[in-house]
C-alpha cells in the first residue's frame, strides 16, 4: 500500500531547497544541481523537488527496503538520498555516462564498511536490456533464486520508448509489493516557458504519458501485475502485484483493450 508511514522522519528540511538525511546534505535547487561544481562526500545536488522528497519519505520511509536499483546517476544526489533514507542491503545505480564522481566512490566505500553494497555502473544505458537483466539478476537474487528488489527509480532519459524498455526488463524482477517509480513523466505537458531547458526533454517522440496510461490500464485489469498506482505531477509510483511474469515481458501486450486500439499521443 502507498498510504504512507506513521512516526517520525529521518529527513530534516533546513529550507525548501536544502535537506539533511543522516550525514548527507542535499541541495534541491535545480540551478545549483546543474551548474554547481562536483559533489562532495557529504553534500550533493539533487534534481528533485521538496514535494518529491516528502512523498518518497512518506511512502518509502516506513518500508523495509532490501534492494534498490536506480536508472540515472547524474551528480549522485539521488543515490545519496535513497541510501541514507532507506539503508538498503543492496543498492545499484546505472548511467550511460562513463566518468564516475569521486564523492560517490567515497560513499560506496562507506556503505561497504557498513556491511552493505552500493554498486555504481557507468556506461550502461537503460535501453541495454541484456546488461540490465544481468545486473539485476546478479545483485538482486537471493540464494533461493528469489528477488530482493524492492524499489526501482527511473530518472534516466524520461523518453517513453526507453522508459518502457527498462520497465519491461525490471518489472518482472521487482518483488511483490515493491515500488516502481517513473520520474518526470509529464514533460510533454509542462507549461514552463521560463524554466531551464534541462527541466524537460526536447524529444518529438511519444509522450511518456503513454506508458502511464498503460500502467493504469494494467492496474485496472491485471492488479496481480500492478496492484496500485499513484500519480503525482513529478513521479508515478506503481506497486508490483504477486503474479509471476514471463521474461521477456511486454507491458503493451499485458492489458486488455477489447475492440479498441490504444492511440499514442
One letter per element, helices H and strands E, the order comes to EEEHEHEHEHEHEHEHEE
Largest sheet: 7 strands, mixed
Q: Low-confidence parts lasting 5 or more residues at pLDDT below 50?
A: 194-198
Give me the side-by-side strand order of the main sheet: 7-6-5-8-9-11-10
Query: What would the average pLDDT be, to the nearest integer?
Result: 92
Number of helices: 7
- CA radius of gyration is 18 Å
Structural class: alpha/beta
CATH evolutionary superfamily:
Vaccinia Virus protein VP39
Strand-residue fraction? 15-25%
| Shape designation | globular
Number of strands: 11
How is this fold's topology laid out?
Blueprint: E1 11-15, E2 18-21, E3 24-27, H1 30-35, E4 43-45, H2 50-60, E5 67-71, H3 77-86, E6 90-95, H4 102-113, E7 117-122, H5 129-139, E8 151-154, H6 160-170, E9 179-183, H7 209-221, E10 226-231, E11 235-240
Parallel strand pairs: 3-4, 5-6, 5-8, 6-7, 8-9
Antiparallel strand pairs: 1-2, 2-3, 9-11, 10-11
Helix pairs in contact: 5-6
